[in-house]
Amino acid sequence: MPDFLTGEQYEITAGPYRAVITEAGAGLRELTHDGEPLVLTYAADEPAPAAFGQLLIPWPNRVDRGRYRFDGRDHQLDLSEPELDNAIHGLTRWSPWSLVEQSPDAVSLAYSLPGSTGYPFRLGLQAEYRLDAAAGLTVTLTATNPGTRALPYAHGMHPYITVGEPLDTCTIQLPGTQYQAVDDRMIPTGGPKDVTGSEYDLRAGRVLGDQKIDIAFTGLDRGADGLARVRLTGSRRSTSFWSDRAQPWLEIYTADSVPAESRRRGLGCEPMTGPPNALASGVDLIRLEPGAQYRGSWGIAAG
């Protein structure tokens, strides 16, 4: 068995759906329906480009200059996005996660995040990927604080949904009623703004054209089931994404800076518990007390 760069490859299937989850970061490497890709993918023996399918823990998006304060103490994270002087996408996406349980249609992986100088807290994590022949993929992430003191927590994920053709000709429907403006370092400026009358009002759905988006939305319109939904529709098929109330934010990215072969061929739909810079700003940041848990779910389906 090859020793792939992304570690063990956990394949699950249900009806027309097939998914592959990696040992590295418990990331979603592949998701197909009747052999058609629902997410942008990459080879098992290469690192996930542009965070394809990665879990983002204990913060999604960015932390301004890697600095934050929690319970009266200042902390400095490594600057993992040096070109913008930020810390980006958490601490777990390249780490090996351990198999907890696998069945034909589901797999659960776990990881224990050790404390570090930038994040001196213990965090227990479990990610479950489950396929249903009718409903598609559901991802459930559970975070537990096994430590002796409260910790700051946020999470997200970075799948790019696709319909196998360029975004420019696709219709995109988004549930966000507000968007978070950012500066040239991708750090929020002020509070969320109403999308009404702006280029970011995609609630009714429209053809994207050449519009570039890399922005967080909130005030998400939800159905009676409490789920916020994104729909990407091409000339032949559609792919949908949903997120539950545990993630009140949704980053949308039109894949403008990913590898050339995938550029603008997938829509980043990133469920987030808080906005960019939440670890520093405290906006929607979760305070996880010793012994407490936080759980969120989201999913992807054809149609």
What does this structure look like?
The chain is mostly beta strands and about 300 residues long. It has one domain: Distorted Sandwich (Beta-galactosidase, Chain A, domain 5). The protein contains 1 helix and 27 strands. The protein has one helix at about 280; strands spanning about 10-15, 15-20, 30-35, 35, 55, 60-65, 65-70, 75, 85-90, 100-105, 105-115, 125-130, 135-145, 150-155, 155, 160, 170-175, 175-180, 195, 205, 215-220, 230-235, 240-245, 250-255, 265-270, 285-290, 295-300. It has a 9-stranded antiparallel sheet, with no helix packed on it. A 6-stranded antiparallel sheet has the order 16-25-24-21-18-19, with no helix packed on it. The chain is globular. The two termini are about 35 Å apart.
Can you describe this structure in just a few lines?
This protein has 303 residues and is mainly beta. It contains one helix and 27 strands.
N- to C-terminal distance: 35 Å
Percent range of helical residues = under 10%
Structural class: mainly beta
Could you give a short account of the major beta sheet?
9 strands, antiparallel
Order of helices and strands: EEEEEEEEEEEEEEEEEEEEEEEEEHEE
What overall form do the CA principal axes indicate? globular
- CATH-assigned fold name: Beta-galactosidase, Chain A, domain 5
In the sheet with the most strands, the strands line up as 10-11-12-13-27-23-22-17-20
List keywords for this structure.
mainly beta; 303 residues; Beta-galactosidase, Chain A, domain 5; 6-stranded antiparallel β-sheet
